[in-house]
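note to self: dont lose this again. the chain is below, predicted strucutre after it. 212 aa total, dont forget to put it in the shared folder this time
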Amino acid sequence: MKIAEPTVERLVQYIRFLQRCREADKKVISSQEIGDALGIKASQVRKDLSYFGEIGKRGVGYDVEKLYQHLNSIFAPPKTWKIAMIGIGNLGEALLGYKAFESEKFRIVALFDIDPDKVGRKIHDIPCYDVGMMPRVLNDEGVEVLIITTPSSAAQEVVDKATSSASIKGILNFAPTALAVPEHVILYNVDIFVELEKLLFYIKLKEESGKV
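---
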């Protein structure tokens, strides 16, 4: 089954929202409530969820626990993915402190940097190694996914070193630069500047459309 990327993104939002509903001990929820909370049309919510069969009942809504477990099982990996983060500057440390990084689906097992004040110690209880040790550590730990938070000038070099020496399957790139990766590696870029520009553009558009 081929599912469009925007649909996958919304499904992740549904899972996170349903988790909050579970924590609030909410038992039943409607597509309208989900849509209102996430800024998505209720019809789109129903369409997204229908990809995986009829889960809710018309006029009754969705059982929060059952829907959460159902969606979560779709995203459940066949194993716990082992991840390494390269570049532990301000952004890297901020991401490590983010609660969403506490998951049974993946585990960050190694950090890499060139700063002698960071190398050789644990950051958020994860060992930090010198970048020169990357080939050995990646293989020893069985790392398959990388998070890149280095300066743009260093990103391609560390990616080349990592993908040539370890069985890397995916890269999440926060460095503001385009990366070249082998065909077998899935690359996702997170460009905060582009997202900010998009936001400002839509704000400007909305303000202009409101002028008489």
